[in-house]
Amino acid sequence: MLLRFLFPPKCILCHKLLTDEETDLCHKCREDMPVAKREKRTFEFIAHWCAIWYYKDSVRDSIWRYKFGNLRCYAEPYARLLAMKLLDTSFLDGIDVITWAPVSFLRRFNRGYDQAELIAVALGKELGIPVKRLLKKQRHTRAQSTLNGASERKANIQGAYRAINIADIPGKNILLVDDVLTTGATSNECARILKTAGAESICLATVAVTTHSNQTKQNERR
User: Fold this and answer.
1) Cα–Cα distance for residue pair 160/148, rounded to 1 Å
2) Pairing relation of β-strands 48-54 and 97-100?
3) Is residue 174 over pLDDT 80?
4) Hey, is 191 helix, strand or coil?
5) How are beta strands 173-181 and 161-163 bridged, if at all?
6) Would you say 85 and 48 are in contact if contact means Cβ atoms under 8 Å apart?
7) Measured between alpha carbons, how far is 218 from 207 in angstroms, rounded to an integer?
8) Separation of CA 200 from chain center
9) Pick from 68, 83, 125, 176: CA 20 to 30 A from residue 99's CA?
């Protein structure tokens, strides 16, 4: 009670104070925020994907606070909500391990944490699925948000990742976690690396997804 008094919880989207009956989201955000629907977007190496919300307005602001405002405490609420989303899908069945799309060493050093890793670890606890680091970003790349179009983004991250802990990959159904799905260049490249290392299938779960109309307006800053 004292901790709640000193550090009152706030809605992770609108940042308003929560009542005793509210958890993670205020009632208005929980009721009004449009959930992301699966669009007719497919990726070569990803079998299925899902996201909680569209990446705009208060969702975009929330993820910016998480990534650039040191609000790493958002990882657990994101994971709880993502777990609820995943439990409503059919592709969670058969998942053997959870991993994440990592940032580079330089990005992690400057930020102090890897935002996708924190969500993946928290999600593993929620779902009771093992979490394993299976990818490494071996070179620092330009921020994807500074590039125009899917082709430039794809070229930017080619060769940026490699598989690690390779013995844990062959034959596995893997859930790949990231914070935002934009063009899919980063996620698809990570999935390609895992498939090349012998993974059976790759599914993707993200907190947010951009719409086709705002793919050039968001900031991913991997």
Assistant:
1) 18
2) unpaired
3) yes
4) helix
5) unpaired
6) no
7) 14
8) 21
9) 68
What are the tokens at 23?
A: 């958890």
| Mean pLDDT for the stretch of residues 123-152 | 78
Do you know the residue count of the chain? 222
Q: Distance between CA atoms of 104 and 22, rounded to whole angstroms?
A: 36
Residue 2 has pLDDT above 50, yes or no: no
The span from the CA of 153 to the CA of 158, in Å, is: 9
Q: Please give the structure tokens belonging to residue 135.
A: 């990818």
pTM of the model as a whole: 0.87
Residue whose entry in the numeric block shows the structure tokens 């924190």 = 118
Strands (E), the chain: 48-54, 97-100, 135-137, 161-163, 173-181, 201-209
User: Directed axis angle between helix 75-87 and helix 115-127, to 10°?
Assistant: 50
Query: Would you state the structure tokens that stand for residue 69, as one six-digit string?
Result: 């405002």
Please answer whether residues 25 and 183 qualify as being in contact, where contact means their C-beta atoms are separated by less than 8 angstroms.
no
Dump pLDDT digits (tens) for 24-34. 999 999 998 88
Answer for the pair 178, 101: CB distance below 8 angstroms, yes or no. yes
Alpha-carbon distance of 177 to 91, in angstroms, equals 14
Residue 13 CA to residue 11 CA, distance in Å, equals 5
DSSP state of 209: E
Domains of the chain: 1-33 (no CATH), 35-214 (3.40.50.2020)
